[in-house]
């Protein structure tokens, strides 16, 4: 991976770690000097990072104590450096601690924390800071107990305020339960050049701005893309309105609605061309199908017609329930135009035949491969995976989006991006990003409904693209 000596890398890691700890102490307590830091030190190099960082803090006047989980195997050089800088070891967590550095295990950890480590972590976490609050908890590289590759938390694990990670962002810090345990993630460049391209990418605003189709002087409604919306029903007319709202906030030049909530849609969106069925919709460059459609014969027929169209398709909600039928899945696999599915966990289970489990990246990749589709697996950190093994994670998710109907808005927007010419992966990543921003904006005004998310979407898209 790299030709630099291990000691050099560890010193760089420790320097970055100490810098971040000093900053956190200064932000909260006004100064670094005389603050109290407890190092939780395991038997590997992760503990070595903590010890060297502790030495650097001790040299700045911090009272640094190290609790060694396995004293005979603690990193010898790190321990010597700590002692030389004035730090010491303790057998149990002191009562007053301002900052805890979790160096129990890093990328070498397997399974949840072992019982001794778990009880040391929990005792330390219940100590009190000198201002009466709870200590700041900083994880070294990975919160101990979190699987660095998958984000699974199979047992006891550290919950960090900040994780200072080295060289590259580990998937376990970005997805699944691990993302929640990691808190804020700081990446320290230690001069490693990864030998393989990143397997997991985190979308940022620049990506979205670079991809989002923008109308130019030569554009017309067809070149901007026509999005077809086959959602809703007389029972679930709201789903139709929400997906049309999502589609209307995208870059498409025209929105066509096809379904039995046509009158309802026409009243709210005079610009939308409405018709009763997919077959009669006319020219469409991408479809969204599923939300509120129902699962009866008529709905199944509409889905078949959508799947037979040689254009990109986004499938959600009832379309995913209908796809639990193996014959429908065959129609999916036969498609040559891009298909995106947007399941939450229960829909994933219906589609795949088993729940997503703790490794959400592997789960999304597996379903993408199984069905030959791009999968947007919804969650706190939504994962997008393609059949050719491209994986993205969306950082803008918010609990505000855990509300009925928000998925209808998302899939509408996603289809508009497909109609605008984006690939399945980019459309899914960009839609998740903008949708997350809209959820956050809507939450500023109190409890959020999907109508609020739909209302916030246009200005959120504008803010992302500004
Ligand atoms: N690889 C590199 O190039 C660099 C690695 N560095 C550090 O080195 C770490 C990896 O070090 P190691 O490979 O020594 O491994 P770790 O320090 O992550 O863990 C190994 C030790 O933890 C114990 N352990 C494993 N699972 C456990 C569990 N569930 N509960 C309690 N104890 C458990 C093992 O018995 C073993 O002694 C990285 O996370 C990072 O902090 C940095 O110094 C920078 C450079």
TrEMBL record:
Its EC number is 4.2.1.136, 5.1.99.6. Residues 204-464 form the YjeF C-terminal domain. Its cofactor is Mg(2+); K(+). It holds the Pfam family Carb_kinase. AMP binds at residues 378-382, 407. Homotetramer. Catalyzes the dehydration of the S-form of NAD(P)HX at the expense of ADP, which is converted to AMP. Together with NAD(P)HX epimerase, which catalyzes the epimerization of the S- and R-forms, the enzyme allows the repair of both epimers of NAD(P)HX, a damaged form of NAD(P)H that is a result of enzymatic or heat-dependent hydration. Catalyzes the epimerization of the S- and R-forms of NAD(P)HX, a damaged form of NAD(P)H that is a result of enzymatic or heat-dependent hydration. This is a prerequisite for the S-specific NAD(P)H-hydrate dehydratase to allow the repair of both epimers of NAD(P)HX. In the N-terminal section; belongs to the NnrE/AIBP family. Belongs to the NnrD/CARKD family. This is Bifunctional NAD(P)H-hydrate repair enzyme. It comes from Rugosimonospora africana.
């Amino acid at each position: 991976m790299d030709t630099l000596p291990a000691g050099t890398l560890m010193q760089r890691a420790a320097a970055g770690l100490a810098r971040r700890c000093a900053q956190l102490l200064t932000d909260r307590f006004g100064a670094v000097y005389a603050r109290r830091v407890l190092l939780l030190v395991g038997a590997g190099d992760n503990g070595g990072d903590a010890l060297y960082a502790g030495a650097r803090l001790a040299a700045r006047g911090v009272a640094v104590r190290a609790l060694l989980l396995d004293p005979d195997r603690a990193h010898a050089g790190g321990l010597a450096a700590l002692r030389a800088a004035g730090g010491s070891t303790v057998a149990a967590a002191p009562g007053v601690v301002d900052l805890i550095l979790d160096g129990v295990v890093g990328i070498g950890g397997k399974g949840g924390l072992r019982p001794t480590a778990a009880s040391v972590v929990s005792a330390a976490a219940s100590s009190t800071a000198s201002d009466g609050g709870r200590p700041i908890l900083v994880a070294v590289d990975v919160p101990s107990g979190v699987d660095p590759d998958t984000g699974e938390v199979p047992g006891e694990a550290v919950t960090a305020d900040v994780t200072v990670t080295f060289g590259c962002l580990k998937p376990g810090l970005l997805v699944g339960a691990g993302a929640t345990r990691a808190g804020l993630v700081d990446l320290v460049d230690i001069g490693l050049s990864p030998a393989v391209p990143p397997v997991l990418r985190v979308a940022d605003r620049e990506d979205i701005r670079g991809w989002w189709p923008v109308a130019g002087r030569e554009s017309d409604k067809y070149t901007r893309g026509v999005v077809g919306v086959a959602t809703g029903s007389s029972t679930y007319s709201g789903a139709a309105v929400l997906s049309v709202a999502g589609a209307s906030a995208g870059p498409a030049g025209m929105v066509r609605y096809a379904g039995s909530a046509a009158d309802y849609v026409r009243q709210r969106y005079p610009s939308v061309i409405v018709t009763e069925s997919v077959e009669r919709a006319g020219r469409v460059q991408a479809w969204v199908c599923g939300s509120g459609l129902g699962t009866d014969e008529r709905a199944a027929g509409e889905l078949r017609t959508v799947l037979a169209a040689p254009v990109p398709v986004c499938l959600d909600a009832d379309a995913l329930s209908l796809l639990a039928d193996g014959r429908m899945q065959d129609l999916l696999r036969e498609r040559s135009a891009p298909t995106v599915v947007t399941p939450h966990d229960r829909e994933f289970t219906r589609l795949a035949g088993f729940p997503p489990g703790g490794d959400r990246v592997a789960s999304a990749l597996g379903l993408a491969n199984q069905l030959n589709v791009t999968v947007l697996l919804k969650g706190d950190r939504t994962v997008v995976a393609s059949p050719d093994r491209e994986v993205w994670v969306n950082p803008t998710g918010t609990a505000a989006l855990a509300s009925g109907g928000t998925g209808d808005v998302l899939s509408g927007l996603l289809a508009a991006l497909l109609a605008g010419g984006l690939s399945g992966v980019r459309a899914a990543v960009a839609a998740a990003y903008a949708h997350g921003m809209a959820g956050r904006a809507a939450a500023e005004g109190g409890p959020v409904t999907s109508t609020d998310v739909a209302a916030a979407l246009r200005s959120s898209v504008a803010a992302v693209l500004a």
